[in-house]
Amino acid sequence: MSTSVWLTDNNSSDALGLTAAYQTAQDNRLQIAQYAIAQASANLTAGENDKAILSLKKALAFDSNNTTAYNYLGKLYLSKGDTANAIKSYQQLVRIQSSTTLKDTATTAPTLEAATLGLANSYLQAQQYTQSEQQFKAAIKLNSRDPVPVYTLGQQYLTQGRLSDALSMFKSAQKAITQRW
Fold it and tell me: In this structure, are residues 33 and 63 in contact, taking their beta carbons and an 8 Å threshold?
């Protein structure tokens, strides 16, 4: 019996049962991912960063679009000086938060601006100045009133000896700060 015949010959309750089973499996995967994130939190509290990284990777094995896991992985990798993995984590986070279908809109989810800023800082720490400049500019476009990416880009320019560009960024950062208050 072919698959198409099987699907049309059986009543719709079989299809509903498969749908319910699939949804239950998906819900279980998400719960396991959340448990792994809770484990990572406990590891971080205990100062066990390597264990936290393993727990966050487990979370991603069960929920490959988990923004919390990518955000914390990026931060942990940056704190360890592992810029290559920090960049990969933040790239995934930016990919998810840029997507209209994948975007995590939970109030606790990192914003696209925060993800972009994390990626910019990762590139900066890796001394990949062209990429960091692009990401800082992208973060500025996302929120022109936030002085952090503007100021940090100014610091990058200062490090590179681009004094007039640095001064321009510092003036823009000052303007953004005064507009906020």
Answer: yes
Tokens, residue 140: 């500025």
Q: Residue 15: what pLDDT?
A: 67
CA dihedral 63, 65, 66, 67 (to 10 degrees): 170
Residues found in the chain: 181
Rounded Cα gap, residues 48 and 51, in angstroms: 5
Cα distance between residue 62 and residue 34, in whole Å: 9
Distance CA 124, CA 109 (A): 23
CB atoms within 10 A of CB 103: 15
According to DSSP H, which parts of the chain are helical? 3-9, 12-45, 49-62, 67-80, 83-98, 112-125, 129-142, 147-159, 163-180
- State the Cα–Cα distance between residues 92 and 123, nearest whole angstrom: 14
pLDDT digits (tens, 9 = 90+) for 38-75: 999 999 999 999 999 999 999 999 999 999 999 999 99
- Smallest CA-to-CA distance from 169 within 144, 179, 181 is with 144
- Other residues' Cβ atoms within 10 Å of the Cβ of residue 100: 5
